[in-house]
Amino acid sequence: MLSKTIEQVERVALRLEPGRAKRLLGAIPNSTLEAMQRARFRRTLRLAAERSRFYREQFRRRGIDVSRVEHPSELGDFYTTGEDLRAQGGHNFLTGRADTAYETTGTTSPVPKRAFFSRRELDEVGRVCALALRFLGLTRDDKLMSAFDCSFWVSPAVLRAALQYIKCFHVEAGKIEPLDFYERALEYRPSVIFGEPSWIVRLAEIADARGAWPVKFLFAGGEDIAETARAAVDRAWDAPLYLNYGQTEAFGALRVECARRDGYHRNDLNFIFEVADTDEEGYGELVYTTLNRDVMPLIRYRSTDVTRLMEEPCACGLFARRIGKIRARCDEMVVCGMGNVGPWVFAEILSGVAAAGADWQAVVKNDGRRDVVELHVETEDPSRRAELELTVRARLRERFADFWKNHEMRLYDLEVVACARGSLRAGRKLRRVVDERHMLMRQVI
Ligand SMILES: [Zn+2]
Fold first, then answer.
1. Which of 294, 325, 356, 382 meets the CB 3.0–4.6 Å disulfide criterion with 418?
2. Residue pLDDT, tens place only, 411-442
């Protein structure tokens, strides 16, 4: 009942101009929102316990009686992890008939995580995203061009679902060469451009050199961005670049920035967020529970992203509370211009190339414009560096077509650094992938 009412409010809000829509949504009392969340959560939990093989077995083994649970935090130390999803396979999570699936690849393992959805869910997530885009100023009169990668990735589908509500002109370019995109975009002169951050940065370099047209905003999803690079994009187009943060498992719609760009507004209509293992500043791993999924609900899913919940209201006036910027990832996966890379990627590239027992470490930096992946490899003979680099590039081209494609699009630089044997390992455990960009990301605009 409450869910239906809120759905009606969402639909009405979509027809109003953004200021009035914000006031309408802001008028929903917090207690109503929380009651709706609790009702949706209880329904989700019962569904999972009854129909999902994975959850039924987990709850049975742990003696969890779901009829007594009112909020995810009452589930103690029970969590769902990406590893569960990978090991068990998405089908063991299913609670209903799936209409579609998306995959997330290149994490800490070559095995993809698969997430299943229904068309109704796609429509619902599209409606919430349409609202967020309306608040950023997207209207029916805009012309939108997207360079999102359509291969197995959920975001292009969510965007299309959102545009069913906005009804603006839309051209789907796919993730093509930024220069090719620029030249073809001249025909349409899109007022809004969508793409991955590193791709958008490269497009901005081209616009800087060749000239920009009037753009209302740019919108990036899929990875984080250094604030210096974001500022360069803003300057090139004289328009703001907004970031969205999602995960395939969450249907790509966890949260989105508002015009203030101070944290992400979270999607409290579709998720309950918690933070696990918090430090003294409140930072910990973001954990979410889905509230409106019938096909593959997730209970306390560990996102592996370290952030904090921001309860204080945002100056933009939007009712939805916020999540801070991502500080780090708990696993060693790094999302950068190269793609989603984890230790296994570099291990594969270096297998049989580096001498037996030689250590290696990948360090991801940002030179202020683009990401730089420095692959440090221990070698007996540092004069072999150039030869090593050639082999690494050849391996990358042969075995990781997507990562190579991003390299050819100049979304990142790859450098091989030769190190002396025994120089990389200071402790017992060597961190294989190190993300050094976070200091830069925390800089204020
Ligand atoms: Zn805001």
1. 382
2. 999 999 998 888 887 665 678 888 888 644 43
Ligand 1 centroid, distance to 21 Cα (angstroms): 14
DSSP state, residue 80 = B
Contacts of 192 (CB under 8 A, 6+ apart): 138, 142, 143, 144, 145, 168, 215, 216, 217, 218, 219
Helix axes 119-135, 18-26, angle to 10 degrees: 110
Low-confidence ranges of the chain (pLDDT < 50): 106-107, 439-445
CA proximity to 378, closest of 400, 398, 408, 353? 353
Nearest CA-CA partner of 432 in 327, 337, 325, 349 = 349
Q: How far is the CA of 137 from the centre of ligand 1 (A)?
A: 13
- The rounded Å distance from CA 258 to ligand 1 centre is 5
H-helix or E-strand containing 130?
helix 119-135
Q: What is the 267 CA–ligand 1 centroid distance (Å)?
A: 12
Output the CA 262–ligand 1 centroid distance in Å.
Answer: 7
pLDDT tens per residue across span 310-322: 988 898 888 888 9
* 325-to-114, 223, 224, 265, 310 alpha-carbon distances in Å: 26, 11, 9, 11, 10
Q: What is the whole-number distance in angstroms between the Cα of residue 16 and the centre of ligand 1?
A: 18
Which residues have their alpha-adjacent CB atom under 5 A from ion ligand 1?
258, 260, 314, 316, 318
**Sequence-separated (6 or more) residues with CB below 8 Å from residue 245:** 221, 254, 255, 256, 264, 323, 326
- Which runs of consecutive H residues, i.e. helices, occur in 281-434? 343-350, 385-399, 401-408
Q: What is residue 107's predicted lDDT score, i.e. its pLDDT?
A: 46
> Side chain identity at 116, as an amino acid letter?
F
29, burial (CB in 10 Å: exposed 0-12, middle 13-18, buried 19+):
exposed
Q: Cα of 310 to ligand 1 centre, how many Å?
A: 11
State CA 360 to chain mean position distance.
27
Q: Are 24 and 12 in contact (CB under 8 A)?
A: yes
Which pLDDT value is given to residue 442?
Answer: 38
Total Cβ atoms within 10 A of residue 151: 12
**397-427 in b/e burial notation, b at 16+ Cβ within 10 A?**
eeebeebbbbbebbbbbbebbbbeeeebeee
Residue 29 has φ and ψ, to the nearest 5°, of -65, 150
Contacts of 300 (CB under 8 A, 6+ apart): 72, 75, 78, 79, 80, 274, 287, 288, 289
